[in-house]
Amino acid sequence: MNAKTKTNANATPADVAEQMEILRTDIGALTATVSELAQIKGSELSQTAKDQISAVKDSAVHQVDAARKQAMQLHDQADEFARTQPAAALGIAAGLGFLVGMMMSRK
Q1: Orientation of helix 86-105 relative to helix 13-84, angle to 10°
Q2: 42/98 Cα distance (integer angstroms)
Q3: What is residue 1's three-state secondary structure?
Q4: Distances from the Cα of 32 to the Cα of 22, 37, 38, angstroms
Q5: What is the rounded (10 degree) CA torsion for 22, 23, 28, 30?
Q6: 21, 92, 95, 106: least surrounded by Cβ within 10 Å?
Q7: 3-class SS of residue 74
Q8: Residue ranges of the domains in the chain?
């Protein structure tokens, strides 16, 4: 037998109770540490998610602004074309109206 086995074989109930109390204390401390770590990681993940959402929102706002500016430029170009070449604009509008009418009547 080794020394550890002899020591465990000669342990009294008080020794076992003392070791159990130490084990309970250690488990309690470990549980508290794991809980704190989980809270910290949860906060970090929450902040990371918030940062990513903010970045996506900012990107979407910039894309919407760019699309709005482009639509306004196209509108301005269409207005300018209609002012400078009203006959052509009227012909294009009539042609598009005719095509849409034909497509709608086929249903």
Answers
A1: 120
A2: 61
A3: coil
A4: 15, 9, 10
A5: 110
A6: 106
A7: helix
A8: 11-105
